[in-house]
Design a protein that fits this description.
The protein is an alpha+beta fold. It is built from four helices and five strands. Strand 4 (83-93), helix 3 (102-116) and strand 5 (119-124) form a beta-alpha-beta unit. The N and C termini lie far apart (42 Å).
């Protein structure tokens, strides 16, 4: 399978938004605590803003010219780890291509970027119910489990 992984720009947002909506629906099916509708325009505005933020990257995975997956992540300095950390915010592959190497190719690219940016640790948040993603990240070498506590404010 020939795939192309590249940074996304604001010009790619129209192609990205259907995948964002699908990801939202997938996560909402796993974890129904959200209780609100997907707001495409709000999500698009936030994505457009974060594309300008230092340390944030969003990459798209293309197969035959079609966007079939995306990952966004932050690289941040961390004094405790003695270097940079990379926090994967989201990684999504369309259902038809799961298990076919697309996610692995995106993770390989993220790890390549991490090495180039002198990242000491890669962190990813995964819902407890999303065992498929947990298994994937363990396979990719992210096997140390941590506890994340979350609270929602200003909804």
């Amino acid at each position: 399978m020939s795939i192309d992984i590249r940074p996304l720009t604001k010009g790619d947002l129209e192609d990205l938004m259907p995948l964002i909506r699908d990801f939202w629906n997938f996560l909402d099916g796993l974890h129904e605590a959200r209780g609100k509708e997907f707001d495409s325009e709000r999500a698009k505005g936030i994505l457009a803003d974060t594309m300008d933020w230092q340390g944030h990257s969003i990459y798209g995975c293309y197969k035959d010219g079609l966007l079939v997956g995306f990952a966004d992540f932050w690289i941040l300095p961390d004094f405790f780890h003695g270097g940079n950390i990379l926090n994967i915010q989201n990684l999504y592959v369309i259902p038809d291509l799961r298990g076919r190497g697309v996610g692995t190719a995106m993770m390989d690219r993220i790890i390549e970027i991490a090495r180039k940016e002198h990242v000491t640790d890669i962190h990813v948040e995964v819902l407890e119910e999303n065992t498929m993603a947990q298994d994937f990240y363990v396979k990719m070498g992210l096997g140390e489990k941590m506890c994340l506590l979350q609270g929602q404010f200003n909804e």
